[in-house]
Amino acid sequence: QVQLVESGGGLVQPGGSLRLSCAASGSIFRLNGMGWFRQAPGKQRELVATITTGGTTNYAESVKGRFTISRDNAKNTVYLQMDSLKPEDTAVYYCNAFTFSIDYWGQGTQVTVSS
């Protein structure tokens, strides 16, 4: 199995930046990719960004041009650089890792964008 631990969340003003980190451990060699999802109170969890083991990235339209997903294979870590943050980005952000058939999830880290 895979364990995922997120970090880097916090409070930031609109227009500010945060970088989230997700450290993976366990059977990481089986992963096809990783990503970030977010969930605001009372809303469904939504895709933010993904990156495959080959380095292909995909983003939700709402974050394109503002967020960047990246990875550091040596550290078994995926990052989400969030720039130009908006209040609507406020949510719990969850790290996701996926194989062909199974998804793994971290516990989440809170991101609050407010003045």
Structure, explained:
- This protein has no helices and 11 strands.
- The radius of gyration is 13 Å and the shape is globular.
- The mean pLDDT is 95.
Count of helical regions: 0
Helix content: under 10%
Give the low-pLDDT segments.
Answer: none
Cα-atom radius of gyration: 13 Å
- Integer average pLDDT: 95
Distance between the termini: 40 Å
* Estimated share of beta-strand residues: over 45%
**Given the C-alpha coordinates, what overall shape results?**
globular
Q: Assembly state here?
A: single chain
Structural class category: mainly beta
**The biggest beta sheet, please?**
7 strands, mixed
Give the H and E element order. Answer: EEEEEEEEEEE
- Give a count of the beta strands, DSSP E runs of length 2 or more: 11
Topology:
Elements lengths: L1 E6 L2 E3 L5 E9 L6 E7 L6 E7 L4 E3 L7 E6 L4 E6 L8 E8 L4 E3 L3 E5 L2
Parallel strand pairs: 2-11
Antiparallel strand pairs: 1-3, 3-8, 4-5, 4-9, 5-6, 7-8, 9-10, 9-11
What labels describe this entry?
single chain, 115 residues, mainly beta, seven-stranded mixed sheet, four-stranded antiparallel sheet
Compact summary:
The chain has 115 residues and is an all-beta fold. It is 0% helix and 55% strand.
